[in-house]
């Protein structure tokens, strides 16, 4: 399958420019969810959440035809069994208060999508890995904070979505094993842990981390992408 990493350069001026120069990656993407196609809250973790959010924001525009103010991709933390004071989960800070890694969480990107589109977003996810099953920052960011996770309602016991996830993994050589997540896992190569979003909910990250440039040298996105956080924040959506 074609890697989606090249899409990180797709953002132009405004939402229409994000993907206007790209050929379709999906043959018949639904514009909106059908009446009987329920929306589900999911999250995906694959190392640093900055570039992952970019990939899924592009996915929302391409697959679901969403506009800039309709994007649901949010950077955050999930997969741990603890939270800090007043339920807080925070990034690394000088006071070392409620840090997500110490609480067992991983960096993730959450979305709200039609259930029928889960397979398409899973393809974006597995397209992030190389042919060996390593994530882009495998040799850089390390530790449980960067482990690979996928969260959806019911987790591994959700036979339908787990089956979809495994099938898509097989499309991408099957080198990334889909395993049941129990929380606080370590950073194990070629493994992604399936989390139940009701037991391991998403914790949104600080505004600074939303729609941020990527982690790699030269991975700077257009200002129009970075500005999405300001637009959403002004509208009370972030």
Account of the 3D structure:
By secondary structure, the protein is an alpha/beta fold. 23% of the residues lie in helices and 16% in strands. The chain is built from six helices and seven strands. The longest helix is centred in the first third of the chain and has 16 residues, at 49-64. The model is unreliable at 1-31 (pLDDT under 50).
Strand ordering within the main sheet: 5-6-4-1-3-2-7
Helix tally equals 6
Oligomerization state: single chain
Unreliable runs, pLDDT <50, ≥5 residues? 1-31
Q: Please count the beta strands (DSSP E, at least 2 residues each).
A: 7
Estimate what percentage of residues fall within beta strands. 15-25%
Order of helices and strands: HEHEEHEHEEEHH
What Rg is obtained from the alpha carbons, in whole angstroms? Answer: 17 Å
Distance between the ends? 34 Å
Q: What class would the helix/strand composition place it in?
A: alpha/beta
What general form does the structure show? globular
Helix fraction, binned, reads: 10-25%
> Could you report the average pLDDT, rounded to the nearest whole number?
86
Summary?
The protein is of the alpha/beta class and 238 residues long. It contains six helices and seven strands; from the N terminus they run H-E-H-E-E-H-E-H-E-E-E-H-H. Helix content is 23%, strand content 16%.
């Amino acid at each position: 399958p074609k890697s989606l990493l090249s899409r990180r350069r797709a953002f132009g001026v405004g939402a229409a420019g994000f993907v206007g120069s790209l050929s379709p990656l999906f043959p018949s993407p639904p514009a909106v969810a059908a009446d009987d196609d329920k929306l589900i809250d999911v999250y995906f973790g694959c190392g640093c959440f900055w570039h992952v959010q970019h990939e899924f924001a592009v996915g929302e525009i391409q697959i679901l035809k969403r506009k800039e103010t309709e994007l649901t991709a949010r950077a955050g933390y999930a997969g741990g069994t603890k939270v800090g004071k007043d339920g807080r989960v925070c990034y690394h800070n000088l006071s070392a208060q409620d840090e997500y890694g110490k609480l067992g969480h991983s960096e993730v990107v959450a979305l709200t999508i039609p259930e029928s589109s889960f397979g398409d977003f899973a393809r974006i996810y597995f397209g992030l890995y190389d042919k060996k099953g390593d994530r882009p920052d495998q040799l850089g960011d390390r530790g449980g904070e960067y482990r690979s996770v996928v969260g959806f309602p019911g987790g591994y016991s959700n036979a339908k979505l787990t089956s979809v996830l495994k099938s898509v993994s097989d499309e991408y050589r099957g080198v990334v094993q889909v395993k049941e997540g129990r929380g606080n896992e370590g950073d194990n190569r070629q493994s992604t842990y399936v989390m139940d979003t009701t037991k391991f909910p998403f914790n949104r990250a600080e505004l600074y981390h939303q729609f941020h440039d990527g982690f790699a040298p030269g991975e700077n996105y257009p200002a129009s992408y970075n500005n999405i956080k300001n637009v959403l924040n002004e509208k009370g959506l972030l």
